[in-house]
Amino acid sequence: VALLIPLTRDVAGKLLDRYVYRTKTNYRRTVLEASRALTRVLDLNKLLAFLTNTLAVSTQSEAVAVYLRKDDGFRCASVERRYAGTRFEPQAHAPAAVVNYLVKTKDLAVAEELEREKMTGEIRDVHGEMTRLDWALVLPLLFEDSLIGLIAVGPKLSGDAFYPDDLDLLMTLANQAGIAIKNAQLYAEVVLANEYIENIVATIESGVIAINATDQVTIFNRAAAQLTGLEPAAVRGRQLNALPPEVATALESTLGDGQSRTQPEIALSDGTATRPVICTTSPLRDPTGGILGAVAVF
Q1: Dihedral (Cα; 39, 40, 43, 46), 10-degree rounding
Q2: Residue 108: what pLDDT?
Q3: pLDDT tens for residues 32-43?
């Protein structure tokens, strides 16, 4: 009896798991809830955590991992494990064979289906890597027909295969996730670029003031505050009339006609003293030549 207990326990556990973990997913609700979150979240880490959790829960899989393209390859960015005993292995970088296959096909790869295909060298390598890592299927993350990442999904907790409804759900979420992840990456790049520009503008000794197309002050650095006697918090976000008339007139003219101007000497007061300054204004343009705003350096 003592010898048989572990054996019977393991067999019973495997048989029962197929029913305990077999739940029916509401695909329509899952897609709606995921779409709502994917279009609203711009923080990349929160987005990836939501994505891996949603995929793991909706498919009742053992684990899910998301890989994103970096300079050194496709690196693991997020992992969700739902079963402590899983053999699912999210290694640091996605195997090159799997990546090359997704780049070529731009379609999901299912381990069981690959096993039934004609075993060419490429298919054999992809199937071998997925089997070694215990990846049941791999989904491409695409943006403008380019592979920006991939999602590795482990086996189902019930031991069932992935049915057509499961695959349709996963591909729908993967297609939406590709766009959402790219938007989050671009947003992070814009925030970083803005911080970089603000740090440069804050440290230079010349006064810098920028306005947008609606005459709203967007940049007002420390040197501009010292030379004008105005507090940055009281100027940023305000209209042109919050600036000294000499600078405001030059910016308004440049914004109106798109022409750069240099005034060799204007009298600028900080409230206690008046100084002669050189003021140069230039238009800020988009890639098509449209005027986005103007900047003054003095």
Answers
A1: -90
A2: 93
A3: 888 888 888 889
Three-point CA angle 271, 274, 279, nearest 5°: 110
Q: Which residues of 129-144 are buried (b: 16+ CB within 10 A; e: fewer)?
A: bbeebbbbbbbbbbbe
Question: Residue 82 has what pLDDT?
Answer: 87
The CB-side HSE value for 203 (13 A sphere, CA atoms) comes to 6
The answer to whether 270 and 228 have CB atoms below 8 angstroms apart is: yes
CA 25 remoteness from chain centre: 27
Angle at 99 between CA 124 and CA 90, to 5 degrees: 90
Spatial separation of the C-alpha atoms in residues 208 and 30, rounded to whole Å: 49
Q: Cα torsion at 169, 145, 180, 197 (round to 10°)?
A: 170
Amino acid at 258: G
- The model's pTM is 0.71
Q: Is the dihedral of CA 117, 123, 124, 128 positive or negative?
A: negative
DSSP string, 147-213: EEEEEEE--BTT-PPPPHHHHHHHHHHHHHHHHHHHHHHHHHHHHHHHHHHHHHHHHSSS-EEEEET
Identify which has the larger pLDDT, 295 or 34. Answer: 295
Question: pLDDT tens across 66-101, in order?
Answer: 999 999 999 999 999 988 888 898 889 999 999 999
